[in-house]
Specification:
This protein is an alpha/beta fold. The chain has helices spanning about 15-25, 45-50, 75-85, 110-115, 130-135, 155-165, 180-190, 195-205, and strands at about 1-5, 30-40, 65-70, 90-95, 120, 140-145, 165-170. The protein has one domain (about 1-205): Metal-dependent hydrolases (TIM Barrel). A 7-stranded parallel beta sheet has the order 1-2-3-4-5-6-7. It is globular.
Length: about 210
């Protein structure tokens, strides 16, 4: 299991990084991205803290990737924040996509894709044109296990497959109960419309890291 979208107490998660990573290791995770919510007001603080979580790689059998989830930032400001986060050392950059369960500003999906982020999280009713651009820009579309955001998983998979875009399963973990194992990740992908073989492939062969 590789999960590149999780949260800690450095934003709205319940666990400090050490506990999150240990719980993920017990679930069989090979790698975890810690991607707390950021905008221009807190990105330096969050990355400065979360980057220290890599100390666990010395003693645990799991890869730890410090990153960010750029959240509710106006579309015009996403690209500059992506560049800034990379300069600060973010290894994974996620943008909080246009989920229908939150008032995300229209144009966020397109701005994130144009900025070449790693993952467009819970992108809601993204268009075929956006999915095609995601393919061209090597941006992964997220199939999420998170309640609420996951109501458009089927749409994301249908449009993503039509465009030939890369897709991954993430948890958007905020609490211990949100962590899943690889079998559950396959079920979530199948529930969104992928075949068993397609689901296994995207869970076992993560397109961002191996």
């Amino acid at each position: 299991m590789i999960d590149l979208h999780t949260h800690t107490t450095f934003s709205d998660g319940e666990l400090i990084p050490s506990e999150l990573v240990r719980r993920a290791e017990v679930k069989g995770y090979k790698a975890i991205g810690i991607t707390d919510h950021v905008d221009f007001t807190n990105v330096e603080h969050v990355l400065g803290c979360v980057s220290k979580a890599k100390y666990m790689e010395d003693v645990l059998n799991i890869r730890v990737l410090p990153g960010v989830e750029i959240t509710h930032v106006p579309p015009e400001k996403i690209a500059p924040l992506v560049s800034f986060a990379k300069k600060l050392g973010a290894e994974i950059i996620v943008v909080h996509g246009e989920t229908p369960v939150e008032p995300v500003r229209p144009g966020t999906n397109l701005a994130a894709i144009n900025a070449g982020v790693d993952i467009l999280a819970h992108p809601g009713f993204l268009t075929l044109e956006e999915a095609e651009l995601a393919k061209a820009n090597n941006v992964c579309l997220e199939i999420t296990s998170r309640s609420g955001h996951n109501i458009t998983n089927g749409h994301v998979v249908r449009i993503g497959k039509e465009a030939g875009a890369k897709m991954i399963v993430n948890t958007d973990t905020h609490s211990p109960k949100d962590l899943i194992d690889s079998n559950r990740a396959v079920q979530i992908a199948m529930g969104a419309g992928l075949t068993h073989e397609e689901a296994k492939r995207i869970v076992e062969n993560n397109p961002i890291i191996k």
